Amino acid sequence: MSVHVVLGTGAIGRATAHVLRARGESVRMINRSGHMAELPDGVEIVAADLYDAKNVRAVTADACAVYQTAQPEYHQWVERFPPLQRAIIEGMTGSNAKLVLVENMYMYGIASAPLTEATPHMAHTRKGRVRSEISQAAFAAHLAGHVRVTSVRGSDYFGPWGLTSMLGERTFIPLLKGKAANLIGNVDVPHTQTYIPDFARAMVIVAESDMADGHAWHVPNDRPDITQREMVTMIAREMGVEPRFQAMGRTMMRIAGWFIPAAHEMVEMAYEFEQPFVVDSRRFETTFGMRATPMPEAIAQTVAWYKTHAHIK
Domains in the chain, ordered, with CATH? Predict the structure, then answer.
């Protein structure tokens, strides 16, 4: 039987495994340790170093689809993301499996209008340029006939296990404790938020569609023009608490970066939260008929998850 292989066991990898298992598919997940908390029922987990193409080839040899959700630590993206993706593409060269990439919006740069899949890559940041380079290299491999590739791009995400995202543990856990959520930038400008289970559903949809091959696709998002203030208000209402928050600007992010590497790396991406950053996902919705989870439902499910996982911090 062919297996669906999920590289990485973070939030999107977990959600993808759950979607696949709900469909009755055979799923193998890969990380460095071969262990993970709350492993989805019926999922095999295997330890492998994905920086080695031979290991990639071994763990994906019987795959029908491979979902690339793995990534280096945020502060190591520039140095370690390109060799990771090269090893994965090399390891899958000649494979019958489709490679489905998780991508974000960094390659587009400053958003002067809602972002579509046709928006030029105009990244002005280090991480944005890396995102553009590895994405273009993957699609070049597709065009060269080395491996079938498609990608799914989401905005900043939230949902179960999305702890390190902008609307992650620093937002939900303080609110649960009656404290102020930690945000960044201008809380009153539109900023698209992608729900993690919707990201996973989109991954599985493009994996089984030949029409998706060779193209990037934007995950459907409900209320793409929502603001951070509106998000916190809805989250607090679901929790039954006051919608309290504090927003960090670039100066405070730089100071925090002296002690927290990820905060230092976020400074160059602050532009996404200082002006409108809206994602247009109509192409995916029209092509595949998928609609995003309504925001109230997505928030309710995320709050329920944090209530049962507040012990993680």
Answer: 3-156+194-218 (3.40.50.720), 159-192+223-312 (3.90.25.10)
